[in-house]
Amino acid sequence: MKEKFKIFKRGIEIDFPLLLHSQRLRRFFAEVWKALPQQDRDQLNDSLILVSDHAVLRLLANEQDEQMRGGAACWGEGRLYIFLNASALKNKTSEHVRFVIAHELAHVYLKHTDRKGTEQRHENEANRQAAAWKFPLPD
Question: Which of 30, 93, 98, 120 is spaced 20 to 30 Å from 134 by Cα?
Answer without folding.
Answer: 120
